[in-house]
Amino acid sequence: MASTVANSKEIVWGNSLSYLNADGNGGSSSAQILKDVSIPSNTEFSIFSAERCGNSCGFSRASDVAYKGFEGANKIFLFHFKMPLDGDRGFNGDMPALWALNGRIPRTAQARTGSTGL
């Protein structure tokens, strides 16, 4: 699986994608499988299929890390994970969440800000 992390915030377009290292604490030059680690509060990562987008995914801000989502009318995702408190009491602290988004959202602009008003 290709795993990526949203770690670069731009003024207008929001977070962009890059590769996450296996320890979940920094970048990588290639896709990595995440080790059995705890991800701290207010930290996000995305999981995509191992199939690169090419021209089939439409626009992507970061084409070198653009992978396809999980296609098909029927699918099932099974997760086994823990959401321990990490002691962070700041903005978004100790608020674990799991989102299932259309693959186009993280490849374009999940959380745009700035003059666009979106």
UniProtKB/TrEMBL annotation:
Pfam families: YJL171C_Tos1_C (PF10287)
Every Cell wall protein YJL171C/Tos1 C-terminal domain range: 11-111
Assigned GO CC terms: fungal-type cell wall
Name listed for the protein in its UniProt record: Cell wall protein YJL171C/Tos1 C-terminal domain-containing protein
